[in-house]
Amino acid sequence: MACNVSIAEEAADAFARSVEYVAFVLKELSAANEMMIAFDGFIARISQVPESCPLCQERTLANLHVHKAHIKKTLLFTK
User: Which residues are 69's β-sheet partners?
Assistant: First the structure.
């Protein structure tokens, strides 16, 4: 079942800073591009198959069928 994916503003900012660091400080443009492609692929997969991430353990969120993914210090919630 397809779902909407919400990315917290803080998570989006942190990801953007990570990509900028790889691209401009480390001067690895292809690696930065691969990061963005991998992230977009993850979002596409999780939006189509949210069950691949566990339900939130908080009862209220679990009852709303909210799923959570923890990716290297970043939380992603889907419903």
Answer: 76
Nearest to 43 by CA among 62, 71, 9: 71
35-70 confidence digits (pLDDT tens): 999 889 888 888 888 777 777 778 887 788 776 666
- State both tokens at 32: 């930065």
Q: Which of 53, 70, 62 is nearest to 8 (CA)?
A: 70
pTM given for the model = 0.67
First to last CA, the chain: 10
How many Cα neighbours within 13 Å face the side chain of 18? 15
* Number of neighbours of residue 50 by Cβ within 10 angstroms: 21
Which CB contacts under 8 angstroms, 24+ apart, belong to 15-24? 15/39, 15/74
